[in-house]
Amino acid sequence: MADLSTSAKHFLSNRVEHFTESVIREMTRQAQLYGAINLAQGFPDFAAPAEIKRAALEAIDGDVNQYAITWGAKNLRNAIAQQTKALREITVDPETEITVCCGSTETMIATLFAICNPGDEVVIFEPFYENYGPDSILSGAKPVFVKLRPPAAGDGEWTFDEQELRKAFHNQTKAIILNTPNNPTGKVFTRAELELIRDLCVRFDVLAITDEIYAHITYDRARHVSIASLEGMAERTVTIDGLSKTYSVTGWRVGWAVAPPGITNAIRKVHDFLTVGAPAPLQEAGARALGFPPTYYERLASSYGARRDRLVPALEEAGFRCYRPRGAYYVMTDIRAFGFAEDVAFTKYLVQDIGVAAVPGSSFYNHPADGAQQVRFAFCKRPETLDKAAERLARLRDLRKQ
Ligand SMILES: Cc1ncc(COP(=O)(O)O)c(C=O)c1O
């Protein structure tokens, strides 16, 4: 085939010019290349619950194999409405306020396409899940970043500066993207923080888009609060969730948005033209899973808490400073003790020489230098995987002594 490298630029959209490949997904490929343990990408290396798998097989066998309703199978929307009431204390109409998409990833970009005009600004806390920046740009909006600051002491909380947040809001602001429990920091936003964000959203007539894909995974005393449940927010919030993390089925690609009817209507149209619909049999299995008893969710959170408590001491022993997560299944670390000038070189060393893949902190920041001394590990792995990684990471102690 002819080499298009010199002329390729002519064919490409200006929008993608500054995009880099997803660093998280790249680290998974590197882990495979070097036979490293993958603590980079957030997917479980253990089996999904037997019941959800059985439900999917039954749906396929029962010939639920054609397009589902574009905005989501009725059974799943009904189950989402019930779970939203129980988990988030929000009453929603499954007929007019829910859209099922191909993962929360598609849900986020469909939402941004549905609400953004050129010149709009979208406020994003950073470090941020790496899709949010490109999502905003693809939708024509300008991302405006507000820093989450790491705790001074190991067991403290990530916080933001109220004045910095206030400054980010003005007449051009269309939306704020929240992610709680947060990837990569593990922060769980408090009610007081969400009330402050609510007051700004109301004052500046701004929409909150809240990615709550880890809502069921919290630790210690942290309790998940949905901003949509705060007074004055139901009419200005899009709440996003999905099957991936709660039911350990990241490859199924089923997620959803809960939003007021006018916004839902717009998200549904975008979703229809993007993908038509999410996989029909997997939506039926999802409907079954959302009805799992409370013990399922208690066990989910406690088993991830145990994994956190397995990995964090091993990382600390190896020389990382860990920011103890209160939710989600990642731990952000400070790598200053190892004497590397920047995180990408360090993660290269980790994957090639130590045999563990992690994500460079810079990929979660707008300015890579801000994350140059941070690295993120995922602990959604079997205890034996974490132990094996801990054994390999222990070799870093020698590096510190050199
Ligand atoms: C904060 C956050 N949102 C969304 C996703 C992707 O979710 P989905 O599989 O539903 O597209 C991830 C996956 O790591 C995530 O961490």
Features:
four-stranded antiparallel sheet; binds pyridoxal-5'-phosphate; 41% helix; globular; eight-stranded mixed sheet; 402 residues; alpha/beta; 14 strands
SSE pattern, N- to C-terminal: HHEHHEHEHEEHEHEEHEHHHEEHEEEHH
> What share of the residues lie within helices?
40-55%
**How are the strands of the biggest sheet laid out side by side?**
2-9-8-7-6-3-4-5
The count of strands amounts to 14
What is the overall number of helices?
Answer: 15
**Largest beta-sheet characterization:** 8 strands, mixed
Structural class determined from secondary elements: alpha/beta
| Cα gyration radius (Å) | 21 Å
Structure explained in plain terms:
It is a single chain. Helix 5 (103-115) packs parallel to helix 6 (132-138) and helix 12 (294-318) packs parallel to helix 14 (383-393). With 402 residues, the chain is α/β, with parallel strands linked by helices. The termini are far apart. The protein is built from 15 helices and 14 strands. The longest helix is centred in the C-terminal third of the chain and has 25 residues, at 294-318. The mean pLDDT is 94. It is globular. It has helices at 8-11, 23-34, 50-61, 74-88, 103-115, 132-138, 162-168, 191-203, 243-246, 261-275, 280-289, 294-318, 343-354, 383-393, 396-401; strands spanning 37-38, 98-101, 121-126, 142-149, 159-160, 173-179, 207-211, 237-242, 255-258, 321-323, 330-334, 356-357, 359-360, 374-378. An 8-stranded mixed sheet has the order 2-9-8-7-6-3-4-5, sandwiched between helices. Strands 10-11-14-13 form a 4-stranded antiparallel sheet. Bound molecules: pyridoxal-5'-phosphate. The site of pyridoxal-5'-phosphate has 13 residues, from helix 5.
